[in-house]
Design goal:
globular, two-stranded parallel ribbon, about 220 residues, three-stranded parallel sheet, alpha/beta, single chain, 9 helices, about 35% helix
Length: about 220
Amino acid sequence: LQRRREQFDILIIDEASQLPPERAFPSIVRAKQIVIVGDNKQLPPPPFFRMHYSDSGDEYSDDDYANEAPYESILDMARTRLGNERTLRWHYRSRHHTLIEYSNFKFYNQRLLVFPSPQLKSDHSEIDKGLKIEYLHGNYNQGLNSEEAKVVIDKAISYMKNFKNESLAIVCINKKQADFIHEEFNQLSATNKIVKDFLEQENELEPFNVANLENFQGMERDNII
């Protein structure tokens, strides 16, 4: 693009909480107007994005990630520099209201208007819809909780058996946990018929996925562990 201003009438930046300012400036200076859309309660740009955009090949450990504070996004900067801030009130993306209840209470001060779910039970009598929490006495050691991983794997296999026509994903707190579970399912796909059949079925389901938090943001599945 040419190095001059006002090449575009309007620039719209979505998911702005994930975008570092230095990645946005080249577009901003070329636009007459900007609309910056995002949620400052969602994940900010984590430190490993710095490494991703740099020429350095240094590895970024979980300890480095935990000890370094996330840095500013273009949304953070816009909230301090720009006027005309507007907040959306209606939440309509959760198929069951319990999926957003905690966030509404903890992060949004109950300001979100939420549609109550008309259906409390799923078509399967053995499981409720919405959010369900299961507390475990796991042991977190060097970025890995093997006890939790075993329970999660067993739960996922149960879902694969009982909900063959529903998509499934596992979301982990960090990449090390996700890699461990992903490798376990790679092995199970060769030895466990339930896992093998679920992964190989040809339909319109979103593919089975094991991911850490940063990689999963924005994705959707019928069931998530």
